[in-house]
Write a structure and sequence with these properties.
This protein has helices at 2-25, 121-130, 133-142, 150-168, 173-186, 199-208, 212-223, 228-232, 236-242, 245-260, 268-275, 282-292, 297-309, 311-322, 325-328, 340-357, 362-376, 381-404, 409-412, 415-445, 464-476, 483-507; strands at residues 32-35, 40-45, 52-53, 58-64, 69-73, 78-81, 90-91, 96-102. By secondary structure, it is of the alpha+beta class. A hairpin with a 4-residue loop joins strand 4 and strand 5.
Length: 508
């Protein structure tokens, strides 16, 4: 019995020894491949063969065709091997860039510097020059990535142009000045202001990507909006709805463009987010894009706010083209007085209808109507004053800078962004034209005269569109003040664009 137990013990020890020896010899690890996930251009290489890397260390930075950057990081610690790619080289999907030989411990032995190792004055001058933005522009251009060179200069010029339009001509300066300055900041080489970890990237991620800023803007706009003209002339609600026709037309146009142009790949959700530009409503465009197409949010926001700010340039030619001089001279009847009770009931009734029929639009319409209720109830003047002034002013600053940060050359200068700008212009033109044409039809059918110009105010650029309508009307008849009638269509357009966004969210 004792012998049997000894034999079993010896046998067990041998088995354990064999397992241990086997494990020791089999502890050799296979090298790990570093693979490119997309077809992209290498714009930065952080390692070379023989380098030791820790887990999560950056290895290379790639830029896709749509302008987005991808950072390749080490998944394990080890030694770099077979890494032969160079900056500005094109990579195919799933291409092996190199290998990492795994290691549990990666040590760097610091080397004490000596006086003899100090660089010369000329070397120091060269190193200092390499830290300047001028060197970065020249280097980027020489390495055939024009978005890092002349592209940045081009976008800085665009930023200066936006500042010029805002300061010199007064085109929505509250929008164009922060957007233009944000564009300049985001294109400063080596500054990294709009890169991960930069202040404008934090602003964009926290306020725009989450959709918080658009909702706060809607609250402020609601607190500054008077629904009296719309209530006094409910027919203008039709004009607000008609001007949203450009949204759905552009949705179809985006899908067609995606099929016809190589390098542009818009999904149905992308097309819906692009189409909302036709409403000329920046907050709604940002909110919808953050839900349906976050990857295009920056380009859509730029297009929406740019065209909204350029209403005085874009709309008048379309209005004059579609109307006669006689039509532009039409005087509309005086609006009736709207009671305070009507103005208080409207936001409550609108939210109730929205909750029952279109809950997906509740965030936008809810914030809009809350701001309006705070103004009209006249018992929370402090809240109303804060919403109208301090809150919306603060949010506008950061919203403009965040939108401007997406005007960096590497993100903006690509085919998809250009396609979005073109489609945005088409959407805005169709929205303006459809509002004017529907107003012409209303003038023929209505017993009271309707000036077709007010149909152009159906887009959501409050109050700029209404002011433009009034200006064009005064050019034909200096006594024809259309501002209050246009405001009815203008504020109904805000609700119309929010409803359109809700419909798209519900369907997609």
């Amino acid at each position: 019995m004792i012998k049997t137990m000894k034999f079993k013990s010896i046998f067990l020890i041998l088995i354990l020894a064999i397992i241990g020896i086997t494990s020791a010899f089999s502890d050799t690890r296979e090298k790990v491949a570093v693979i490119s996930p997309y077809a992209a251009k290498v714009i930065r290489v952080d390692v070379s063969n023989g380098d030791l890397v820790y887990s999560s260390d950056p290895i290379a930075t790639l830029k896709r065709n749509n302008g987005t950057k991808v950072v390749i990081r080490a998944g394990i610690s080890g030694k770099i091997e077979g890494f032969n790619i160079k900056a500005y080289q094109m990579c195919s999907p799933h291409q092996i860039l190199g290998y990492i030989i795994p290691s549990d411990i990666v040590m760097d032995e610091p080397v004490a510097s000596t006086i003899s190792s100090l660089p010369s004055l000329s070397e120091l001058t060269g190193l200092l020059f390499e830290t300047t933005g001028l060197y970065a522009l020249i280097d980027g251009q020489q390495n055939k990535d024009w978005t890092e060179g002349s592209g940045r200069i081009l976008m800085i010029v665009v930023g200066l142009l936006l500042l010029y339009l805002g300061i010199k001509h007064g085109f929505e300066p509250l929008l164009l000045i922060p957007i233009g300055f944000g564009a300049i900041l985001s294109n400063i080489p080596l500054a990294g202001i709009s890169e991960p970890g930069g202040i404008l990237q934090y602003v964009y991620d926290v306020g725009i990507l989450t959709g918080i800023f658009p909702l706060l803007i809607f609250m402020g706009v609601g607190a500054m909006t008077d629904f009296g003209p719309m209530l006094a002339n409910p027919k203008t609600i039709i004009l607000g709805g008609a001007a949203q026709f450009g949204i759905f037309t552009t949705l179809i146009g985006a899908l067609i463009l995606s099929d016809l142009v190589p390098g542009i790949n818009f999904t149905l959700r992308d097309a819906a987010a692009i189409g909302i530009i036709g409403g000329a409503d920046g907050p709604t465009a940002i909110f919808l894009s953050s839900k349906l197409s976050p990857r295009l949010l920056g380009s859509i926001a730029i297009a929406a706010y740019s065209y909204m700010a350029l209403v005085p340039i874009i709309q008048p030619p379309i209005m004059r083209l579609l109307t006669t001089e006689k039509e532009r001279q039409i005087k509309m009847v005086q609006l009736r007085h709207v009671s305070k009770l009507e103005k208080i009931i409207l936001p409550l009734l609108t939210v109730g209808i929205c909750a029952l029929l279109l809950p997906s639009a509740a965030p936008l319409i809810g914030m809009f109507m809350f701001g309006n209720l705070a103004k009209e109830c006249c018992v929370v003047d402090r809240l109303s004053d804060t919403i109208q002034n301090a809150l919306i002013n603060t949010v506008t600053i950061f919203l403009g800078l965040g939108v401007g940060s997406k005007l960096s050359a590497d993100k903006f200068l690509n085919l998809e962004t250009i396609g979005i700008l073109v489609l945005g212009m088409v959407a805005f033109a169709i929205g303006t034209a459809s509002g004017v044409l529907i107003a012409k039809v209303m003038n023929k059918l209505s017993k009271s005269p309707v000036n077709p110009l007010i149909g152009a105010a159906g887009v959501s650029a409050v109050p700029m569109a209404a002011r433009v309508v009034n200006k064009v009307g005064l050019e034909s008849n200096p006594q024809n003040h259309l501002i209050m009638h246009a405001m009815g269509a203008n504020v109904s357009g805000v609700i119309g664009s929010a409803v359109a966004a809700g419909v798209l969210l519900a369907l997609l």
